[in-house]
Design brief:
The complex is a heterodimer of chains A (about 160) and B (about 170).
Chain A: H1 4-15, E1 20-26, E2 39-46, E3 49-56, E4 68-72, E5 76-79, E6 87-90, E7 98-99, H2 112-121, H3 133-150
Antiparallel strand pairs in A: 1-2, 2-3, 4-5, 5-6, 6-7
Helix pairs in contact in A: 1-3
Chain B: E1 2-7, H1 14-24, E2 27-33, H2 37-46, E3 50-52, H3 55-61, E4 66-69, H4 73-85, E5 89-93, H5 100-113, E6 117-120, H6 127-137, E7 144-152, H7 158-162
Parallel strand pairs in B: 1-2, 1-4, 2-3, 4-5, 5-6
Classes of the chains: A alpha+beta (about 160), B alpha/beta (about 170).
Chain lengths: ~160, ~170
C-alpha cells in the first residue's frame, strides 16, 4: 500500500499537476495471502516532462529501492534513500557523477516531530512543501486519477492478433 | 509542553514517530485511541497516558494542543476533521486520505479552524532528498524533464493486514 503516493507527491511538488496519467498494476502471485496487486506503476505526462512512480512489494533486496532520480536538461541527480544517503550529480563534464555535499540544515528538519512542533510554535514557519497539505492534496488528485485509469479494463493486445 | 494524543495506531510508522516526539522533550504524550486492543496494549507498554477505544471520547475527555493521526487512510479523514473542529493541530501520516474528496475535507477543515495540518512523508526528513529538490527548483540541473521514484520492499505494510476495509488499488493510495 501507500507506495505510489511517494512518487506522486514528489512529482506534484516538482512538476505540478500532470496533463495525462497512465499506468499498470499486476499481481505476481508471489504473495498468495495478499488479495491486492503487489506491483504498480503510474506514468504522469506533462507538456514537456514526465514522471514515474513505481511501487513493489515483491522486490528482493534493497538495490534501487526508495531511490529518486531527477533528470534536467543540464544535469542528473541520483538521490539515495535514508538519512545517511548520498546525492550524486552527473553533468556533461562529469558524466559518471560526483557526490554533492549536503549543507547543514536547521534542527527542525531532523524528523517529523521536530518539524511539527516548530510549526506549532512559530505560525510564520512554512511547513516543508512536501508535507504541506496543499501539495499532499495535489498528490491525492494524481492518485485518484491513477486509480480511475487503472480501474478501467485492460486490453490484452495479444488476444487480438 | 505541548499536550499531544494519538488517534489511530494502525500505521506501523506510529511507534518510531512517538519515540521521536518523546525525545524532543517538548511534548507530553497524553493518550491514544484505537479500536484494536493489541495496539492499545502495545501503546500502554511503551508510552505514557491513557488508552481509549473511542476516538470521540478521547477528544472530549482530554485537554490537548495537537494530535498525531496514524489510523488507516480511510480513517484519517474523519479523525482529522474531528480534531480540526476542536481546534487541534494535526500531524497525519501519509498519504493524506483514501480519496480526493477526503483530502479536500481535511484541507478545508484545517483552513477553517486555522490550525496546522502537516502530512508526514517520511522521505521528507532525508537531507539529501531535500537538497536535491532544492537544486532542481533552483534550476541547477537545468529544465527538469523527468522525475522518477521507486518504492519497493518485500513485505507489505502491517496495516494492510489489520485494516479489513482495504480494497483494490491500495498501492496507489
Amino acid at each position: 500500500m501507500d507506495y505510489c503516493c511517494y512518487g506522486a507527491v514528489l512529482a506534484e511538488l516538482l512538476l505540478g499537476r500532470p496533463t495525462r496519467i497512465s499506468g499498470t498494476k499486476i499481481s505476481t502471485g508471489f504473495k498468495p495471502d495478499l488479495s491486492l496487486e503487489d506491483n504498480a506503476i503510474l506514468v504522469l505526462t506533462y507538456p514537456n516532462a514526465l514522471a514515474t512512480t513505481e511501487a513493489s512489494w515483491t522486490q528482493i533486496g534493497k538495490l534501487t529501492s526508495y531511490s529518486t532520480t531527477l533528470y534536467g536538461s543540464e544535469g542528473t541527480l541520483l538521490i539515495e534513500p535514508n538519512h545517511d544517503g548520498k546525492i550524486r550529480l552527473a553533468t556533461q563534464k562529469q558524466p559518471d557523477g560526483i557526490e554533492i555535499e549536503v549543507p547543514e540544515q536547521p534542527d527542525y528538519f531532523g524528523n517529523a516531530s521536530l518539524h511539527f512542533l516548530a510549526a506549532i510554535e512559530d505560525p510564520d514557519l512554512d511547513i516543508y512543501p512536501l508535507c504541506d497539505a496543499a501539495h499532499s492534496r495535489g498528490a491525492q488528485w494524481i492518485l485518484e486519477d491513477g486509480i480511475r485509469v487503472l480501474s478501467q479494463p485492460a486490453v490484452d493486445k495479444s488476444l487480438k492478433v | 509542553m505541548h499536550r499531544i494524543a494519538t488517534l489511530g495506531l494502525h500505521h506501523d510508522h506510529v511507534w518510531s514517530n512517538l519515540k521521536e516526539l518523546q525525545q524532543t522533550g517538548r511534548a507530553k504524550l497524553v493518550a491514544a485511541a484505537d479500536t484494536d486492543h493489541e495496539l492499545q496494549n502495545r501503546y500502554q507498554s511503551e508510552f505514557p497516558g491513557k488508552t481509549y477505544q473511542s476516538y470521540e471520547k478521547l477528544l472530549s475527555d482530554e485537554e490537548l494542543d495537537a494530535v498525531y493521526i496514524f489510523g488507516s487512510n480511510k480513517l484519517s479523514e474523519d479523525l482529522t476533521v474531528m480534531a480540526c473542529e476542536r481546534g487541534l493541530h494535526c500531524l497525519v501520516e501519509k498519504p493524506m486520505a483514501s480519496n480526493l474528496e477526503g483530502a479536500n475535507r481535511m484541507y478545508d477543515s484545517a483552513v477553517s479552524a486555522k490550525v496546522r495540518l502537516m502530512i508526514n512523508w517520511p522521505f521528507a526528513w532525508w537531507p539529501q532528498l531535500r537538497h536535491g529538490i532544492a537544486m532542481a527548483q533552483a534550476g541547477e540541473i537545468g529544465k527538469l524533464w523527468q522525475v522518477k521514484y521507486l518504492a519497493a520492499h518485500q513485505d507489505r505494510s502491517n496495516w494492510v493486514a489489520r485494516d479489513s476495509s482495504v480494497s483494490g488499488f491500495t498501492m496507489l493510495s
